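[09:14] KT: can someone run the structure on this one? pasting the chain below
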Amino acid sequence: MRVLVVGAGAMGRWFADSVATADDEVAFVDADETAATAAADALDGRALTPPVEERFDLVCVAVPLPAAASVIEEYADRADRAICDVTGSMRDPIDAMRAHAPEIERVSLHPLFAPENAPGNLAVVTDADGPVGETIRERLRARGNELVATTPAEHDEAMETVQARA
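[09:31] RB: done, structure tokens below
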């Protein structure tokens, strides 16, 4: 599988490390080219410079939440089979994926732990399923993660409550 991770920070690296196998080709792109290079070097991938012209089986968006919708819009057409996000919210990313990637698989993931504390519980919204989404979930489970199916509304309401209490 060819995977593009948009966002080479901790969550983007965690996703690539958790989901990609030695048989997969992983590329990173980030507004900070140094971060993309470091992630690629650490995970035997490639660093790309925007704009990305290549197409991938899976595009994973791992950027700060305020940028998620615009980054999904920018990179959705780079995905041939599936698009996912690990941004921490689900309603807005799912809406953006529906709008800009209506014909492919769509999954939103929210690890309820810091990457350095993996494995753990992951909230999962499978908006449009298929073989890539199944593979993502299988590989995350194989790494010891517990997947918790939810809806965008349930997830975001629960996170608002948790964040308000903190």
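[09:33] KT: thanks! The chain has a mean pLDDT of 94.
[09:34] RB: yep, looked fine to me
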